[in-house]
Every structure is written in C-alpha cells, then in structure tokens.
Design goal:
The chain is of the alpha/beta class. The protein has a single domain (7-205), classed as Rossmann fold (3-Layer(aba) Sandwich), CATH 3.40.50. 46% of the residues lie in helices and 10% in strands. This is DUF218 domain-containing protein. Residues 41-147 form the DUF218 domain.
Length: 213
C-alpha cells in the first residue's frame, strides 16, 4: 500500500489536515477516543506523564476498520498499550462499549459523573479533533473541552499509519461529517471556508469516497 502523499494531492490534503487541527492549549482530564490509531493511547500516556491530567478514560468497542487490529476492543488495547508505557493501572478507566464518537462522549461522561469533572482533553486522531469537539459541545455542553492529537506533520502521520489512501479517505469523510452531523443534530455547527470546501470536493472527484456517508 502507498505510504507517500502524491504531489498532485498534497495541497488539498494539507488543507483538510490543517482545518481539523484546532491547536488547543492543553489542560486536564484525558479521554482517549477509540480508533485504528494506537497513537491516541501513546499520546494520552505522554500527556499523563507530563502531568497534564491525573486520569485517562479510554473509550471504544470495535468498528469494521478496527476489529482485526484490536480484536478485544479499542479501549482494551489502548489501556494495555498505556500500561506498557508506564501509566499506572489505577489511573486508567476503560469504557468498552462505544461504537461512534457520540457514544465515546456520552459513555465517558457517564463514567466520570461521580468525579465532578469540569474540563476534559479529548485525545483523538488528528483529523477527528474538530468533529470530536463539535460532538462534545453538543452532548456535554457544560464541560470545558479541548482537543489534542500527536503533534505530527501530515507526512509523518501518514508514515506512522502506513497507508496514504486510508488517511485521505478518513480526512474526506470527517470533513463531510462536520456538516452532516450538525444537520442531523449530533454536533454543533462549525464553519467550513470555501477554500476548505474546494479542497474537499477536489479530493472526492479524485476518488476518495470510501468514508463518505
């Protein structure tokens, strides 16, 4: 599978990449959103060791794109990886039932209810930041939410995943969901500039449609 970004797609892919990066300043507590990207657990552990939060919630069951890699569930595998990275067991909560971002937020909120959490860091894939933020603001409006991902440049992230087509398809799909999920009442409205929308449409015309709704 291809791992290098084609030159003729670079500008449009970088445009979507930059759009989804919210560049939030980090503060406590941490919720790792399940996905195919083990870097979420890696970065959650890194932030924990840096003293950014005292508790991590890993949330996620399985999806068709993750069941082969994480057969026991995303959150379970994330926890195991965080333990390998030195996060103590009593600093990790596992929510193994969520099958989408809305359930990640709702189920993690339920798990944290008795702890009176006032602020959370949602740790996700880089291109999931904006959608995770919009979903959390809809479902948990009273919490102070910021989003974070491993601070990798686009090309380094593609190399870490090992599949450029997968990354582009996911970027395109998440861009569509910014508008579609707001229209369906799953998330708050967010602006998409004409510049971002033009890049998104060009990538669809180039055939990156596998993650469209």
């Amino acid at each position: 599978m291809a791992v290098s970004l084609p030159d003729d797609l670079r500008a449009d892919v970088q445009t979507l990449w930059d759009y989804h990066d919210l560049r939030h300043e980090l503060r406590p507590a941490g919720i790792g959103l399940g996905s195919h990207d083990l870097g979420v657990a890696m970065y959650a552990a890194e932030l924990f060791h840096a003293g950014m939060f005292p508790l991590i919630v890993f949330s996620g069951a399985n999806a068709p794109t993750t069941v082969e890699r994480f057969p026991r569930g995303e959150a379970v595998h994330y926890r195991e990886h965080a333990l390998e990275l030195g996060v103590p067991d009593d600093a990790i909560l596992v929510e193994p039932g969520a099958r989408n971002t809305g359930e990640n937020i709702a189920f993690a909120r339920r798990l944290l209810e008795s702890r009176e959490v006032g602020s959370v860091v949602l740790i996700s894939r880089p291109y999931q930041q904006r959608r995770a933020y919009a979903t959390c603001k809809k479902l948990w409006p009273e919490v102070d939410v910021i989003c974070a991902s491993r601070p990798l440049p686009l090309d380094d992230y593609i190399e870490s995943i090992g599949d450029v087509d997968r990354v582009i398809n996911m970027l395109v799909g998440d861009t569509q969901r910014i508008t579609a999920y707001a229209e369906r009442g799953f998330a708050i409205h967010q602006e998409i500039s004409n510049y971002v929308m033009a890049a998104y449409k060009r990538l669809i015309r180039a055939g990156y449609v596998k993650r469209l709704l």
